[in-house]
Amino acid sequence: MSVNFIGYIGFNDTSELHAGVRARVLDKQYVEDAARAQEAGGFDRVLIPFGSNSPESLIVAAHAAALTEKLGFLVAHRPGFTQPTLAARQLATLDQLTGGRVAVHIITGGADAEMARDGDVGTTKAERYARTDEYLTIVREEWTASQPFDHKGRFFEARGAFSAIKPNNLPVFFGGSSEEAIEVAGRHADVYALWGETLEGVSDTVRQVRRSAARYGRNPGFSLSLRPVIADTEEAAWKKADDIVEQVRANREAAGLPTSGHRPVNAGSLRLLDTAQSARRDTRLWTGVAQLTGAAGNSTGLVGTPEQVADAMLEYYDIGIDNFLIRGFEPLKDSIEYGRELLPVVRAKVAGRTGQPVALAS
Predict the structure, then answer these.
(1) CA 39/CA 35 separation, integer angstroms
(2) Which of 58, 128, 164, 304 has the least C-beta neighbours within 10 A?
């Protein structure tokens, strides 16, 4: 089993460490620098995130793709706000223009307030996952149909739908930890994405998704999201992690944001917050920022030297993780460090187990 690395391009060079910094909402220079740096560092793809008040992910991906030659793009997309027939053509068009460098990350959405900002008011989580299921069924039909087709479902209707443009190979990544999410993932996910929980928690989720997918004759890959903290020594790495925690705490307190007592509304954050009951889990899993933020998104990491973190990543690899989505708290600086210090070590260790040649960054 090969291993793939997914980086991250936000819209400016900030993170939880930089609260109060007046950054441009869309920093064009940062997007360009981050794309070039992660291509040079050997990342296979980069995630372009989605938010109800943030720049549009597909357009940012198109701009970054025009500046790179090999780097792939994982475009976050929320179903239900664009007609699935149109979304299918948009993604297939970008796939063709980039020579097959596009994947889509389907994020159904669990927070009612964020959904309402884009006009989705009053739907339940179960309804949203049912809509995602139907949405992806239509998208795949658009990508594969050789003749026009009709669709009449609970959420969408199309007559004579057909896309003249087809993707070369456009994987569907899918996230969500609820029962409804895992059921939809089993039908549609080429890669199931989860956050950095304990080895036991990740292994349990992998088993659940595989059981769901097996009912449909499918065998998805798995992606794990982490925030690695690396340094020359283990002591320095944990000191760096502790400093990050204290800075994030200070930023949240200054902004009047809670640092405890969180009640996340989605199942994934609830699982991650449960993991974060202790600041350190397993050997290297670090949950300090997840504790402070209520496990809001990708907020756990692995801490140690590059060699130690690589060994910890291989423990996840052994239970089925073949994609690692990693980003740092100093986004551009950390991505360069990962490309130089961490990715080559993990790839060499994987190659040593599989007998495959090590892929070198050009």
Answers:
(1) 6
(2) 164
